[in-house]
Amino acid sequence: MSFQDGFIEERLGAFPSPWQNTHYRMPLATIAEIEQTPDEFTDLIKYVKNINDQGNVGSCVGHCGDTVMSILNYMKDMEHDDLSAGWLYWRSRYWANIFDPGIQGSTNLGLMKALNKEGAALEACAETDVVKPFEIDPCPEAFEMAQNYMISSYYFVNRNPTDMKAAMYGLIPGFPDKTPLVTAIPVYESFKFSYENGVVPKPVFGERLLGGHSTAIVGWKIINDEEYWINAGSWGTDVGDKGFFYLPIDYPFYDVELVKMGSPVPVEKMSFMCQIIAGLKNFFNCKGGES
Fold first, then answer.
1. Is the peptide bond before 133 cis (omega within 30 degrees of 0)?
2. CATH code where residue 122 lies
3. Total domain count for the chain?
4. Residue pLDDT, tens place only, 227-272
5. pTM for this structure?
6. What is the rounded CA–CA span in Å between residue 236 and residue 244?
7. What residues have CB less than 8 Å from 257, skipping those under 6 apart?
8. Where are the beta strands (DSSP E) in the chain?
């Protein structure tokens, strides 16, 4: 299968989330927690209802949010809710303060705020546009409806494999549920080599950066003795491994977020340096670890 030049570029639309000291952050994984992570984790794949196709709109942030929310809602009540990726893209841009129609894309922080403050409307009430220029015409009940699909909080995860695995696998105290992750990645020119089988090459020094992409990470697996993240894409099933892509385990991430559907354990707001000190204390004083 071959794809025309520019296939990637017109589908990119994720900007790195701006840093804020008030972000809730996941604790560092302890040695004991790291040792509990399995070699492969593929349980969440069965909850992916379908692979979205965002068309030529840079709305990947909304489609990533749709995938993650659909998985979590299905795990809660075993029913698939048809959420609107277009709505999430539109509202994420509002909360990311991106109002220029000439700028395509959004941030995952904007998505987190939209889900936390407004929620996700259903596709039947806010049809997703997949052709530029992006437009949306939600029904009058959209904002009221969206309140049924909100998150109580969101947490930024440290961008390294051990902490991401522990968070996904439900090993961090206070976060006991297995969960997909909302991520944003830089996309380089070599990404095109994954069109056939979904295996994404690790970018090399000096390689041309094409833009950013928001992706739902739903697990990890071993391919040819190497570890890869399992990414539920939003470019349709005709590309990659039926729409799935596999990122090298040490692929660089812009940002990684975990969302909480229920009432989370309260987390004290503290300075960034205090968060680091608390995390290190948790790491080195863990049960099963050595001082």
1. yes
2. 3.90.70.10
3. 1
4. 999 999 999 999 999 999 999 999 999 999 999 985 334 444 445 5
5. 0.87
6. 9
7. 17, 108, 109, 112, 154, 155, 156, 157, 181, 182, 183
8. 14-15, 106-107, 153-156, 181-188, 209-223, 226-232, 244-248, 255-260
